[in-house]
Amino acid sequence: MTEKRRKKIIIDTDCGSDDAMAIAMALNDPAYEILFFTVTAGNVTRDQAVRNTLTTIEKAGTYEPPVYAGADRMILKELAFAYETHGMDGMGDLGFTPERLLPAEGHGVWKLLEALRASEEGEIDIITLGPLTNLALALRLEPETVKKAGRIVIMGGAGFGGGNVTAAAEFNIWQDGEAARIVLEAGLKNVILVGWDACLGDCMLNEEEIGRLRESGSLGRFAVDANRVLMELNRQRFGQDCLDMADPAAMAAALYPDCIREQGRYYCQVDTSCGPSYGAVLIDRYGFSGKEPNATVCSRLWADRYKEYLFRTLGGREKR
Ligand code: RIB
Ligand code: CA
């Protein structure tokens, strides 16, 4: 029987604690082959995000794709790290650090372009979990090469809900609004925006699910413990232990599209003005702009399917 070919993906990350959970999920999905990771500053510095990515690969105990450092600063905007959400090290300040792995030689943006240049049209999907700086730089260097990518699934924007870093903006887009504008205005045909609203409501991990994931094995324990700071923040915000896992939701939408409940094609634009709505992704729901849609917005997942996928890829895994 011929082995079903694994779909090739490249993951771009600013590896904080929810990225780590999403990366661990992807490393445990046999239908996909992660060619490599590219890393950007975002939740934490680029170099800390590289270390966090390496740690996650070690904790997953599956295969070990190369990790390439990318942008250490945004296109224009000063970096504002998310220490209050993920901890100073981005992984719950529990001392997680890579024991053995080192980053690969080469800049992530050039490695992304090299892989896409050598690929067939649509052969490689790109999944981004942080600010879009690396993708924007690749588009500025070789736009036609980037257009060879298959799906480009982005955890970004507040969807149809409110922001999580300002009233209007979601963190990944707000951290580098100019990069997000470059991506959304590049004429890419297969952009899928998974908004922060997709991981809320019945897709939040509740106290019982968090406990079950933590008890499911070493990888589940790591994925929960790395999100310790976010859990404490949510305890203050919502008065209960719960986890809004934005990157795992985007990863599930990318790797297990059957869990997508609501999505639609819209013209989306990013506010890069200097006012209070900087970084907002404006979704032209009713076509006021008269412009052709430039993205598919995924705003809701089937909670049962999403969580089944999350447990299937993370749970019951003792480190090999
Ligand atoms: O808004 C949530 C996003 O911002 C996630 O990707 C999280 O890791 C942070 O990067
Ligand atoms: Ca992230």
Oligomer: single chain
Domain count, please report it: 1
User: Using only CA atoms, what is the Rg?
Assistant: 18 Å
Bound molecules: alpha-D-ribofuranose, calcium ion
Q: CATH fold name, please?
A: Inosine-uridine Nucleoside N-ribohydrolase, Chain A
What is the CATH superfamily? Ribonucleoside hydrolase-like
Q: Give the second-level CATH assignment, the architecture.
A: Alpha-Beta Complex
What is the number of strand segments? 9
Number of helices: 13
- Mind describing the biggest β-sheet? 9 strands, mixed
Structural class by SSE content: alpha/beta
The level of helicity is 25-40%
Give the CA-CA distance, first to last residue.
Answer: 27 Å
Beta-strand level of the residues, as a percent range?
15-25%
pLDDT average, as an integer?
Answer: 96
- What's the CATH class label? Alpha Beta
Q: Strand sequence of the main sheet, in spatial order?
A: 3-2-1-4-5-6-9-7-8
Can you give a write-up of this model?
The structure is a single chain. The protein has 320 residues and is an alpha/beta fold. The chain has one domain: Ribonucleoside hydrolase-like (Inosine-uridine Nucleoside N-ribohydrolase, Chain A), CATH 3.90.245.10. The chain is 37% helix and 17% strand. The chain has 13 helices and 9 strands. It has helices at 17-27, 46-60, 83-86, 108-118, 133-141, 143-146, 171-175, 177-184, 207-215, 218-225, 228-238, 246-255, 303-314, and strands spanning 7-13, 32-39, 67-69, 124-128, 152-155, 191-194, 260-270, 281-284, 295-301. Strands 3-2-1-4-5-6-9-7-8 form a 9-stranded mixed beta sheet, with helices on both faces. Strand 2 (32-39), helix 2 and strand 3 form a beta-alpha-beta unit. The radius of gyration is 18 Å and the shape is globular. The two termini are 27 Å apart. The mean pLDDT is 96.
